[in-house]
Amino acid sequence: MKVLAFAASNSRKSINKDLIRYACTRLTDSDVEIIDINDYEMPIYNSDLEEAHGIPEAASRFLDKISEADALLISYAEHNGSYTVAYKNLFDWASRKKLEVYQGKPIIMLSTSPGAGGAKSVLSAAVGSAHFFVGKVMASLSVPEFYKNFHRDKGVITNPDLAAQLDETLSALQQA
Question: Which domains does the chain have, with CATH numbers?
Fold first, then answer.
């Protein structure tokens, strides 16, 4: 199974990128490609820009990556209870090109944050809206208190219960 994985964050030091990299090591029976949303930078979505210049080529490249995959693994960073501006912009442009952004792919959705909430607000929004964009959310998991539960130097979840929950969440891809 070919899995496309990415963090919905443009920060170079993103803890969601750390979580994605670790989660990918747990997908032993999959061919995983990790992309960086910074490679799909576009102007802030505006219908006037779309009318004047069309949809940027980066939106097509992002949709092509999704098309080439059998499944998606996404970890959402939370800014003020919602998506990061970088991801929301990428998603908005992509949805203007093709409303079915997720293209019927099975998806595992993750999130993490430094706080006890573990970015549950954005994860809930992503899970709740995925079907509008033809996404099949197989499972989701919020990892709270990232710095307490993850060893960044080793790149692993240190909390055994959370590590087991992640493995169980990822196993939903095998059922897809």
Answer: 2-171 (3.40.50.360)
